Here is the input.
Amino acid sequence: MDLKYLFFYLIFPGFLFTGVVGLLTTWVDRKVTARVHWRVGPPWYQPFADTMKLLGKEVIVPAGSKKTGFLLMPVIGLAAATLASTIIWLANLFSVSFVGDSIVVLYIMTIPAIAMILGASASGNPLAVLGASREMKLLFAYELPLVISMLTTVYKAGSFSFERILAEQASSGIMLGSASGIIAFIVMIMCVQAKLTFIPFDIPEAETELAGGTHIEYSGAPLAVIKLNTAIMFFVLPVFMITLFWGGVSFAGWSILTSILKYVAIVVIIVLIKNTNPRVRIDQALRFFWGPMLVLSVVALVLAVLGY
Amino acid sequence: MHELLQIIVFAGVVGIIPLFIPRKGSAAAGVIALAASIWIFFKAIRLFFGTGEVAYRIALFDLGGQIPIDFALKLTPFNSFIIIFVSLFGVLITLYSLGYLRGSDRGSIYYSFILWTIGAAFGAVLADNLLVMLIFWEMLTAILFYLVNMGGKGHEKAAAKTFTLLGFTDASMLLGIILIWVRFGTVSISRLSVMPIETTAPVTVIAFICLFAGAIAKAGGMPFHSWIPEMAKPTPASTIAFLPASLDKLLGIYLLGILTFRIFDISAGSPLSIMMMIVGAGTLLFAVLMALIQHDLKKLLSFHAVSQVGYMVLGVGSGIPIAIVGGLFHMVNHAIYKSGLFLGAGAVEKQAGSTDLGELGGLARVMPVTFVTMLITALSISGVPPFNGFVSKWLVYQGMIDGNGGYYMIFLVVAIFGSALTLASFIKVLHSIFLGRRPAKLDKVKEAGFAMQLPMIFLSILCVVFGVFARYPLEKIIGILSRSNVGIDGYSVVIAKNGGFWNPTLATGLMILGILLGLLIYAFSGIKKKLRFDENPWVGGNIMDDEEIAIPGTHFYKTVTDDLNPLLSGGLRDGDRGDYDIFNIFGRLGDQVVQFLRMMHDGILSTYLSWAVIGLGVLAFILMFKW
Here is the structure.
């Protein structure tokens, strides 16, 4: 294995970078939420402090659970989330890309969800199992519009590869500049909201109803890993969207500033949706994604095929 | 004797031996069959790495020199690749059967059938003459009929259905072969492959569709799929892992490959290509929806065996080089993971005594080997990277995006969405059988025997190897295709054209690194000292026993399949009842014809007389106008 990939994966733009920025993003989330609630909100280092505190707590593995699977699954999710982040960032920063990497990323980004489902199922807690079944249903609910809205850009670029998608945007304008791009972008924001299991789609966790659902039995270090995982996904998914629709991110010169602004803009949209909506039921979510969102994404794809 | 013929004759002759071994000594028959299948496997390896094309031919009879029917076998790169897997599965299944059938009263004849199946499959794959191929093809149908008939409750109906559907499509193949014969004067595959056969004339189109029906019925594509779910429940898991799950896929898709890029010239975007893609996409979507509502493990797996054919037909039928590679690689991968899954199902059935998902649960701790192998194979079939199913599906997706036209997007979306539903279905399986709570009656369940474990372990390792080191099998497949005029020029050219492949080896290395990193975080937090195992799961503060808090996976997707959309749920219910089953539809039609004939045979002389008069009148009418 090439040693530079070790660096890419572990330090930058992989684990360390993504983890730190991801945790900072959760701080943005908490801060904005607090301002919406008319509170002050935590200081910027709060997510780090929380992670350290969780690492110090004892770890309860419930009786009757499948111990290895229960403890291993969060770690597998972490590995996959980091890998997805590395692939997206390498395509953006160094044009290291391969054919079909967007599909690969899409699949790798489902691994954290699968790991969560299997971990919850292994815990043997009925509430966790309910959460797991909801997470799975949510997954295939949003997968359909997510894929179609991604294909809108893929069709325009004529390729699955991030590099070509970015090159297409560099030459003939960002995808968001077209009607089909805007519609697909809106659909994808909804799908990302569900992928992050944020309100209104926090159905698998449903804290007031399932008491954490898939997370219910996790504590201590595994819970810290899960939180880190969510943080990383919170960072990766907006960057994924920027790459597909908004010309990608870049660290060269002033564009570093615009890149950050793009990112923060998407994060704030997600946080605002999160703060202004109630949780929906799973069947409502299914209807939402297989109904209006599916129609919208198909409209976007058809517009893209027609050249709009 | 010629080395190609040798294998077929050997399998046929050795297959006779178990017939003389009494029921009690069926283990001895198994050992003989195992030895024979290993020998065949080594022969196949030697042929694979041997010196290129070998042909063998005896003229059987000659009709005036115009239409030679000869017993022709020919080893080509493509079929040498198929036979290696046919014989590999032969070895694995025989080994597995030794453990699986111990203590059952199936008798030694089972091993005869297995050996004959291997021999007939070799014949069908190596045949260089469509008629010879059809003869071996029919043999396989007949043997399958007997194998299904050895099953448990409900085997009669399953066997009859299998035989009817396969027999019907075999007949349609015969019709197709005759049409080819009439039109082109030969049925030799190697001679047809050098002829330019455009699919524009109606006769060629009909011939193609007739042969295509035979190929997809064997592979289990819709609408001729219903024999697989029907036979899944009564038939022993070893049989179903061998025939519908692996061998029949190899054969069916092999024939499809022969049709699409050796005999006929199907170009991408032609009507026949689109028809095949529609069949493929339809198969993969509807079958996976049916799989979602199944409660029986073997039946669920059988619907996935149908669904996955969709990817192969979609890939091979598209006529796009990269998708053809994907389709063929998927055929191999599917044979690997699906027979692995059925073997796992057999292990669960034997050890826990049931395949009903509602009755199982929590077996991961008592059957760890079965769990891990089924987890790997289940993730493979769901197309999760870095396992093998992902690579081949992804090649098919890539082919769809290479396709010229917006409608390819529909196929692409269906293919990706089908993959998500497959994952959902296997999450249900894993939860219901291995995770979750273990019912008290399963407390004494033990891991399956070693003879059963070994094939399962081997197949799941193959899933990992073909996924992580996908480059090597792909190089082989592309190499084969580049010599079969598909328009592929070899691995390096394909790579260069597509700007580099995803590197599963590197990605897997990084994933493992990530897992180690996570474990390091655990270690850093001093998890060893902080673990506590004495707490019960938290259920709102209640203390409940295992039975009360067990949630079976059978109702995971009730929201989707029952409550969401009356059209969808109604359709699925009807589908489950068999309303769209071509077997039942034609059964009803046949019944109506019989009722009509019955009505006429009322035993009254005057009715018969009037029919005779009408018949005479019709005859006279025809004779008058014809002469």
